[in-house]
Write a structure and sequence with these properties.
Elements: H1 2-25, H2 34-48, H3 70-98, E1 102-117, E2 123-128, E3 135-136, E4 141-145, H4 148-201, H5 210-240, H6 253-270, E5 273-275, E6 280-283, E7 293-294, E8 301-313, E9 328-333, E10 336-348, E11 377-381, E12 395-401, H7 410-415, E13 422-426, E14 432-436
Antiparallel strand pairs: 1-8, 1-12, 2-4, 2-7, 3-6, 4-5, 6-8, 8-11, 9-10, 9-12, 10-11, 13-14
């Protein structure tokens, strides 16, 4: 009996331990409440306390969030995505239909008035008054030519002018003298006529002298010739005085010609001092050195304007459908990210850029490949104050607000029997242009 009891007790004492191990090994089924887990744990712990009091850690307390598996998450996410899909399609369709009114192109560059500084006289460079990349104002001296040869030419022209003035005064005096000689010769003619008549009357008388008769006739003829010569001299002098002996010297053609020579010499002397034609920045100044002989019209260096600046853009022909002069433009420069310039569309070229090339494309000969053309366009800048300096050649991005939304696709409008794009835009000058993008050309219009 004692042995049987001891074996029974040993068997009974070992059972709680196996129960406890099974409780730890088997996980609680999904959906059990927290109280059931606690009761099972307490029962297992109570049985383990009977003969062999073995302490074991309690299992972690699970919550509802911990019991959500990835499979259950996918089951919850799928209906949510199906519910958001129509909303996303509606929002995307609205953005598509109401968008597309901004035409953007990055084929655009900054341009400005640029002139090659030169002069119309030839001479030796005497001094250079500016340095490279210097900001200059209109009228500021840039460089000077040696002025001594031009000053000598001016003095020579002034001397010639004085000579012409004296000649005109001499002509006036000659004309007056010729008039006096005419009067004197005409006054002597009656005397010679009487003398000649007296000698003629003595013909055949003893007092007649052939020598006296010939002398009287010669004196009369000479007096008459002196009158003619004096009149011819007076006419010549009067002609050089523009048939007006009382004309001022300054209005005489000879004087005007000589004065023009003086003015030209003065102009050439003034041209030896070269000034800036407008506000800007000089560049490539080291190309000109003191002592260089600069020929007329030869470029010395360049001047780039800092005031008259614009953007030259070349968008595709398919992007200009609704672009019109005067529309607002937003310009961003690659050099200055985050800064915007405002402007307007100034003008649009009447022809593509390739039309002005040296060798335009001949599409009527040989194999023809259609290439989308680019149309030059000018964008005026309106707010240059308090903005970074723009330099010629900088790359920019131009965004033009055309005010014309994209609208519904063609197949939708055709489905409902409407015109998908039949817009009439006005251009300057009152012209109305009707756009029909149905893919048909107007009657009578052909392309070679």
């Amino acid at each position: 009996m004692p042995e049987g009891n001891s074996s029974d007790r040993a068997a009974s004492s070992s059972e709680p331990i196996e129960t406890s191990d099974r409780a730890e090994a088997e996980p609680a089924p999904y959906g059990d409440t927290e109280d059931d887990d606690i009761d099972d744990t307490q029962q297992a712990s109570g049985e383990a306390e009977q003969p062999r009091m073995t302490e074991r850690p309690l299992p972690p307390i699970t919550t509802d969030m911990n019991r959500i598996t990835p499979k259950s998450k996918r089951r919850l996410l799928r209906p949510l995505l199906f519910a958001l899909l129509p909303v996303a399609l509606a929002v995307g369709g609205y953005i598509y239909v109401t968008g597309g009114q901004v035409m953007s192109t990055d084929n655009a560059y900054v341009q400005a008035d640029t002139v090659g500084i030169s002069t119309d006289v030839s001479g030796t460079v005497d001094s250079i008054e500016v340095h490279d990349n210097e900001i200059v104002k209109k009228g500021q001296v840039l460089f000077r030519l040696r002025e001594k040869p031009f000053r000598i030419a001016l003095e020579s022209a002034q001397g010639q002018l004085g000579t012409v003035r004296n000649q005109i005064l001499t002509l006036k005096a000659t004309y007056t003298q010729a008039l006096a000689e005419i009067a004197q010769a005409e006054a002597d003619i009656p005397y010679y006529e009487v003398t000649f008549k007296r000698q003629k009357d003595l013909t055949g008388s003893p007092a007649y002298s052939r020598a006296a008769y010939d002398k009287a006739r010669q004196d009369l003829t000479a007096a008459q010739q002196r009158v003619n010569v004096a009149k011819a001299e007076a006419a010549a002098a009067l002609a050089q005085l523009s048939n007006d002996p009382n004309q001022p010297v300054e209005q005489n053609p000879f004087y005007i010609q000589a004065q023009a020579g003086v003015d030209e010499a003065q102009r050439q002397l003034n041209s030896t001092v070269v000034r800036a034609p407008f506000d800007g920045i000089v560049t490539n100044v080291p190309a000109l050195q003191v002592g260089t002989f600069l020929r007329s019209a030869q470029q010395a260096f360049s001047l780039v304007s800092t005031e008259n600046i614009w953007v030259a853009a070349s968008p595709k022909e398919t992007e200009l459908t609704y672009v019109r002069p005067g529309q607002p433009v937003t310009i961003t420069v690659d050099t200055y990210p985050g800064i915007e310039w405002k402007g307007t569309v100034g003008s649009i070229s009447p022809a593509s850029g390739s039309s002005f090339s040296l060798l335009p494309a001949q599409n009527t000969t040989g194999n023809w490949v259609k290439v989308v053309q680019r149309i030059p366009m000018i964008v005026k800048l309106g707010d240059l104050a308090d903005k970074p300096q723009l330099r010629v050649g900088m790359s920019v991005v131009v965004e033009i607000d055309t005010g014309h939304a994209r609208g519904l696709p063609a197949f939708i409008t055709d489905l409902f029997g409407g015109s998908h794009d039949n817009a009439t835009d006005s251009q300057p000058g009152g012209q109305q242009i009707s756009k029909q993008t149905g893919g048909k050309e107007p009657a009578g219009d052909s392309h070679g």
